[in-house]
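User: Can you help me understand a structure? I only have the sequence.
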Amino acid sequence: MSLIEVKDLTVRYGEIEALRGVSFCVEKGQIVTLLGSNGAGKSTTLRAISGLNRPHSGSIVFDGQSIVGLGPEAIARLGIAQVPEGRRLFPGLTVLENIMLGASNRKASSAAIRREAEGMFELFPDIRPFVNSLAWTLSGGQQQMVAVARGLMAKPRLLLLDEPSLGLAPVIVQAVFRIIEEIRKRETTVLLVEQNARMALKVADWGYVLETGRLALGGAPKTLWSDARIRDAYLGGSQTKASA
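Assistant: Let's start by predicting it. Here is the structure, written out as tokens:
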């Protein structure tokens, strides 16, 4: 059963169509990845789902309810959380304080939220030593873990991850994707935007490829990755193979 269904989605920035008639769905409990080059429309898709970009046309249905026209806070309350590209942590707050902010839309006591935030360090043991450190003092990979933990504090039914591996060292990328697999075990559905096609397809149940605002193709990860023409045309095949 689809948790979210996007149909004929068009998003414009002025006269520019960033998305043109994009349709796809994400089943409950799945990890689905959106792939494509810079400017393909991947982040725009996530921003439309989370209410940050208002679609020009098309529909977005989350668990049977249309969410087009709802604001970001209303969409978050329905159970959709986004971890944005670039982490966007609050540098003047500690790691624990940043994580606790993820529960700002929930009705829970401060003590309960703090307990839940402290429990996040079981999933993210690498940042446990920095619980009281200011967020800006952490490495890029550690900051990414804080950002994901903050997103999970909303207890989302759908987690939107925008380029979680961007700018990270290979060993940290591996750690981030291990966490994404752990998130699946918690029965949280994930829509993953990622330029690292090789890693994304390793954890995904299904993949879609965007090209200049249109959905070029979709399929099972093995099908997408095994086709050399698809790898070279859409997934940076030769470069990725060289670095594998």
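Now, to help you interpret it: Residues 238-244 have pLDDT under 50 and may be disordered. The first helix runs from residue 42 to 49. Let me know which part you'd like to focus on.
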